[in-house]
Amino acid sequence: MLCLPHGLQFRTQKHSLEPQFHSFVITREDGHRSYGFSYVFYEEINNRKICSAMQTLQAMHLTELSSNQVGRSGRRGHSAGLGHDAHNTRSLPRHFKLSTHQQGAAQSYYDAAKDTLYVSKSIALICQLPYVYAACKYLRGLHRLVSTSSPGQLSIESYIHNLLYEVPVPQPGRTVCFSCPLADSVVIQRPGSIEELPLFDFSLRELFTLLGVDCLTQLFTCVLLEHQVLLCSSDYHRLMLVAESVTALLFPFSWQHVYVPILPASLQHFLDAPVPFVMGLHSCSESQLKIASEANLCYVDIDSQTIQLPEELPSFPQHAEFVGELRELLMKHTVSSGQSVRNLNERIVPHASSNMTSSCTLPGGFGQLMRRKHSWSHNSDAGMSDALQRIVAIVERTGVSLDDSGQVNGTECKLSEHEQYVEDLRFNNAVREVFLNRFVYIFSAYEHFVIQPNQDKEQWLNNRDTMQNFDKATFLSDQPEQHLPFLSRFIESQMFATLIDNKIMASWSEMEPNLRVFDRRIRLLRKRFGEALVRTPGYEPCTTIRDTELLLEKRLASVDIVVASPQEVLQTAGPQQHSGVFPLLDPVALNKEPVHRSQKRKTMQWRTGHHCHHHQNIEQHEPVDGERTADTVGLLQRVSSTGISLRQPKLRNDMSPARVAQTNWTFVETLLKDCKSKTKRMLVEKMGTEAVELGHGSGESSLEGVEENTLIASLCDLLERIWSHGLQKKQGKSALWSHLTNYQELKECDDTSKPIDPNFLTPDLSSMALETDLSPSSQRHGREGHKLPEGRSQISSSPASLPPNSEQPNLRPLPVSLTADMRNVQAMTDIKTHIGYARAWVRLSLEKKLLSRHLRTLLSDSALLRSQYKRYAFLRCEDEKEQFLYHLLTLNAVDYFCFTNTYTGTKLPYRVVIFPSRKTSAATTSANSWVAVSGTLGETSPVPIPRGALEFLFRHKNLGILTTLRIGHDNSGPSPKWMVEHVVVRNEVTGHTYKFPCGRWLGRGIDDDSTERLLVGELVPRDVDSDELVETCRTPPPRCHSPSVPRRSQDARPSLAEIQHMLGDAVNSIVKLLYHRKHDKERSTLTLLLCGETGLVYCLEQAFLTGFKSTRLFGRNLYLWDYFLRAKEQFEATLLDSDGDMTPHPSEKQILHCYCNLVNQIGSTSHTLGKDGKFQLFVCLCAREHLLSRMLTPLSLCCVTLEMYEEQSFLRSPTLLTFLRQILESLDEFDIVLENSLTQGIGGTH
Fold this sequence. Notes:
By secondary structure, this protein is α+β, with helices and mostly antiparallel strands. Helices cover about 40% and strands about 10% of the residues. This is DENN domain-containing protein 5B.
């Protein structure tokens, strides 16, 4: 099944009879793999009975084929010769193809009298390790023995006997040389040093030639994310090559799912398995396979160079730089599609057609160059002039060839087969080092986020499936934002979980070999950048290629074992005559063990044991703290020359006190200098071009590509280094968090107002209240609320918290306390490690602009500081400590949202305070009221307001930066009308307070009949205290921040010039935002520019109110929405009167259709909105549909406009109308995406 995956095949001399080599893999139940190698060739059949039977089968097949085609007259294309239907007939073996093309099919029929019949055979070799080159060379030599006869030639059994009993598998770090039949000796080697990657013998040169860099990286990404991967090729060796290469490049990770590089035709039903897999399918089998467009499937046709990717496939981190490094490596090793490669089959397979419809072509240069390779020799080439053809002919007669680029290759020396194999090993090593280097940089700090169990090995193994072993939230919080789509999915994969499990198991048993090499590389990287976590702003190319290449060359240059040449084992003498047929082997000779075998086995066992013992000693004495082995001297010398290491200095006993003091003083100065540069870099990045113009960016390296999240993670690393310097005793992975918890314990003990809880460091996260100031009733509601589903909000009101004899709500300030922020962080259920808690606390303090203040409070406890740190520690150097706190204080000059934007899955408490009108009749409502809050990270469903409460608290998944708030009621009860001046929402953890001005009525029969208002929020500056905020919220807003301006007689209308100026500023602000837009989080800014104070809605409202005849003698005043409704009615009448004189132009007709459809949707879906609210929604949707500028001309020509507007208005004055249309046309160039809170669920109108 594996040696002949396509079964037994018959061919004639008219078909290709070239031998084929392919490898395969056998996976045992315990996961151990053995590798097989098959050499398939064709031998002539001399048995006349078999030939006669085959002739009879062919006749039966043709008869059955003809009868089947009688009822298929529509399928003329299959009437001559054998097509795809030939596979479904019963008489002819399914793989015996007499023809593959319609024309000339009769010439390929088998005629027993004229044709020679051949049958496929295979000789195979099973090995423990994948020595592909050696196996191919050996099997090819065995096959050549059959057709070659020379004096003194040994039998086939002699070579096989020598391989079975004399050739040992190389020990790690050793090399073995043995003889091959009718060929030069072959050398096999095995890496053994901890600096080297495991053995890999497939040709990556051929892999890049087949797929190209772009396709390979896409396929590599699919395998990393554990998608279903299906490979297709007409060559079994290519299937094995691609599958083995891609899985080998995963190092140190390993594929954990179904792995069948060559799927036999009888097992195609395995493709229906709903699990991740890597499978290879032959093209003949694939031609009948109907592959559905699976969302999770990656399909690669190797021959036709096409690939179909899964949906929403994220990019590999730093993909462009990674591909660039690989391309440079290909150029260095002269690997390109036009270059001949070491093809084990020594043939070129024609491109097969693909049955995939939605696929993208691989890099076109590969296929085109392969077909263009010999174009210089064709005189019929249309792209070559006659003169150029004559020149080429003269050059070729001299024996000099031209490559694709026209360069002379006559002087190029051709490598021997062994030299080419060694060059391929060098290239394999370089490519694998580049791939491993990416993982080393991405996961250089993974050990800090591994959650070590507090159980023994047996308990941990029993509960492993239910335990969290990796602090995913904290790890992701340290990563650049553009890498999160890939990393958030990869850390959920089985291969990543297996590596973490192996890391934990290493504390009880020997470390897994792949993990040992990976950890070794990470330690070398830290010697380059320091003991702290690695933070590199740019892309770091691989620097270890040359060191591992030297180890490879050294091993290949000195052969450890040279196996003796084979000796004849058969009793008969003289050359064997096989007549071109591979004979049956003599089992007696092959099972006969050599006389010296037992003694040799003992010798080999002694040598093996001695070598393994020596190798283990090397690993046990592996350098960790500065020791150097001979194999790593070159690497470490280059690492030490890159700059000053920030590792904590090692103090030796023979150092003098002055020397000790100088060493520590140098380290303290380095830390302080690093702190200054990092804080300055953070300020420059946050202030942007303004800081550069002020001169703060001079001399700094470019900040392009360094985002805020990476810089803050680097600041966290710096704090860990500072707190780790001069420790008396290390208490955990995070020195900062250990210091904080010790401080918290002291404060808890000093607090005599409550009993000491000895378990406060491991709180019950399901019941810990994140807010710091709630009544007992609200705390009870909060504990019960955690049992609700994740998507629902949890509410707790606190009417008892109002001051006595107070009719207005009050917003008490949050306590500014280091321990309060620690309790908030400890209550976060998605953080599992001390490193994670420390980082969350730093981010929270930085966002609240309390980092410097909190650290000063922490360091003010001198007794605690002396008990934890030695005298020379950085934290006990007073001058340096003050400068350090001063540098951190400068970060308060800018606003950070590093906690809010990082911990997106954390549940946070939000306090809502409603400030109604002071008028008694408008201060309360009998209706059932609610609020819905929206932010950059999500929105809530309507949260009911407790009856009679003006202040309440609800918990919800992190909403991000709050943008809008909807408040409304159901208009029930005897007195539902309610006048709301302001609504304030405060995040009880970060302290961010948002003010939502309203100043409008809620209720039917008053104002604009609105029972729902959309309020746009503004962030209250931190320097505004609670008393000042409450005082401003108790008074009506001077000008509403909501969709419409409140109609008060004292509000003066702006002049025409002011309206034009405001409108120009509003449109310019939106255009500037959309032009520089980077991600969806800027939708919140767009909402403010549309609906906020002096936003586009307000400016257009002022423009449309100019000259508007809103006052009526009888009845309520008219609103702008009344005008747009009347215009809609007239437009509908115009569209219906298509035969009249006023038939609109098709383009104008489309505008009228869009306008009417939009107004009708707003009227049918927004029953709770008032007329001003519908106008605001109408403007936002028109901006999204690019209708604002296009609807002005039809409106200006509408009869309703003449009735409801004065002559001097924006819709009737030609000058003002032209200005309005031109200023709004600039918005049509951009795609505007609105928040869900603005659209009311109304989709596009097209």
